[in-house]
Amino acid sequence: MTTTAHQPRTTPEIGGLGHSRRRVEDARFIEGRGNYVDDIELPGMLHMAIHRSPIAHGRILSIDTSEAEALEGVLAVVTGELLAQYNLAWMPTLSGDSQAVLATDKVRFQGQEVAAVIATDRYIAEDAAELIQVEYEDLEAIVTPQRALDEDAPLIRDDKEDQDSNLCYTWESGDKAAVEAAFSDAATVVSLETFYPRSHPAPLETCGIVADVDSATGQATLYMTSQAPHAHRTVFALVAGLPEQNIRIVSPDIGGGFGNKVPVYPGYVVATAASLVIGKPVKWVESRTENLISTGFARDYYMRGELAIDGDGRILALKVDMLSDQGAFFADAQPTKFKAGLFHIVTGSYDYPAAYVSTRGAYTNKAPGGVAYRCSFRVTEASYLIERLVQNAAYEIGMDPAEFRAKNFIKPEQFPYATPTGFVYDSGDYEKAMRLAMDMVGYDEVEKEKEEARQEGRLVGIGMASFTEVVGAGHGEDYDILGLKMFDSAELRVHPTGKAILKLGVRSQGQGHETTFAQIVAEELGIPASDVKVVEGDTDNTPYGLGTYASRSTPVAGAATAMISRKLRDKAKKIAAHLLEASEDDLEWEPGKFSVAGDPGSSVTIQDVAFAAYTNPPPDMEAGLEGVNYYDPPNMTYPFGTYIVVVDLDPGSGQWKVRRMVAVDDCGVRINPMVVEGQIHGGLAEGYAMSSMQYITFDDLGNCIGANFSDYLIPTAWETPRFELGETVTPSPHHPIGAKGVGESATVGSPAAFVNAVIDALWHLGVKNIDMPVSSDRVWAAMEEATSG
Ligand code: CDP
Known about the structure:
Radius of gyration: 27 Å
Bound molecules: cytidine-5'-diphosphate
Largest sheet: 7 strands, mixed
Number of strands: 34
Strand order of the largest sheet: 3-7-1-14-11-12-13
Number of helices: 19
Strand content: 15-25%
């Protein structure tokens, strides 16, 4: 059932679900008292700088480190050759490929790690890194996946025995024969070829590590910018051969991750190896340029989609072909089973019987990555394609895009809904969200104004995207990273005074977990959220989990938190019965209190019970009120929404401005409505940035254009439009508190809405597509081309 808002069941003092509790972590962040990796100073700490390749593709002929080694203050210069002696020159990627830690044979992208300097301070380390001389034999740089797959293209991964082309993977989903049959019956076939350009998560804090390996005890304490500390610990144990019990990964405050802090980077490995060998702590923190040119990128998908439509405007089938640019190593962070991530959710919010998706990935001379940048694994690309395609299809068959969507939406009574590519959507009411967004924006009035504007020589466009996201990986049977099942965990300890500590396997990077996860405990146990401390990011002190990315924290660790709270409540009830000398069956629960049915004067609070758990438990019961839950979700959750954008486009310059941006989101029950709105604001700003200004490109030689914030444009408050938010609530039926994840939805849903609005303003001229970022010069060129042809 969909409602318009969740009514809190707890008082504001308890602060359970539905309360816009202020973010507790912000006090330290806004006072500049966060504790980030670069804030960590250890006695005797050394500093590391990395020498990187200036070229995109070349064979290494020689490396001369003598000048660097001679610089005063330099303790060591590490090369790939040296690492090879410890079997550390290569490491596995999260996609099961191999990646050079420091290059030994060839360099394969500009910015690749070639050598590292360890010195007494960072300035000396950086100066020495520049003194390293590397001689290369230049090889052709491959900067597009199309060129990579040419027969005469040079082989990038000649290090891999069975690799005889630059094809990185192929993968398909759906029923090809059924799709072909549907296309032969179609009244209309609509196609769209589009490119989702490479972009970068660009977190405010770059990546870094302080590696502290104690040679006496063998204990390795690694302070790392890690979105997934437990998984990283296991990868370190496997890569470096360190015993896992001796590895402690501490992920302190993180200044934004957005998927960028999921992969294991060479810098982490080299700093750890250096600390191990030298016996002193080693710090490495990237510069902004290093972060932009060498760490996990996102997107870079070339996509072609075709819709088969019958004479009544019903979609019969979808066919998609996709080619992805993977960079030099296949390092996507995504479930093992799905080579192109969850791209096959490209069927979107629509009901049709057949779909077929074929995908290929190619190695190129660019940085590896393919991270879930504010999206579930590659869902942003999928959502963009289907929402652009659907909008164009409506125009092609002469139907209003909203009515075309309404006609083809999966209807509320069809849930759970099995898509033709194998997902089972949990719940949804797509039309309700769309109609709310239309009402908020005044859809009919804008449609009318469009005509009048044209008469006056102005251009107005209205664009829409009705997306479905898929978040909350696992289920473990289908979702794993390097074989590690994607469950997550929560450990809850209620202390004798009724205060609690909640320890999680996930790791917030700004999402506000310290605030919201305490609210789940408050909801379930009635302990005020302000009495619940949330701890994350220290592998010695938290239960094993797969980490925070792809909006999985609430669907998985949030569920684990509810489950362990309920388990403790069951135990608390037994203790309450003992204290009240009543039968458990006669007890009633209201948040924070058990009372005897019919005798409300006979009651005990959860705090009384907590005290008794340690001082006066029932004779046959173990003392304490603590426990841990590992939650393997039965399914993902499927948040959705409709975004509508109105733009004013200047026909004289091609410039467009957002007049209105309405976003209606449904993420089921909202734990903290204010935090959810913050997540949506951030995601919308990123969606706007991608659609209008933000992308990384490369010249013919593979030089990265976008290696700093003058070239790679991050939107500021000045250019970011005002967002108007609306909400519907369709709880997830399988989630213990009915919540769906939300962190990524806005970035997933919004780029298509922005671009659709621009295309809407230009459709009458014959403009059907402009690839992102839709800058004014691209708009201008598209208008020129359309009108001159
Ligand atoms: O995994 P990540 O934390 O990035 O994403 P998420 O689980 O979607 O949650 C982002 C933030 O929004 C967290 O602080 C959640 O607890 C909060 N949230 C919420 O308050 N209600 C929801 N239904 C979903 C998320």
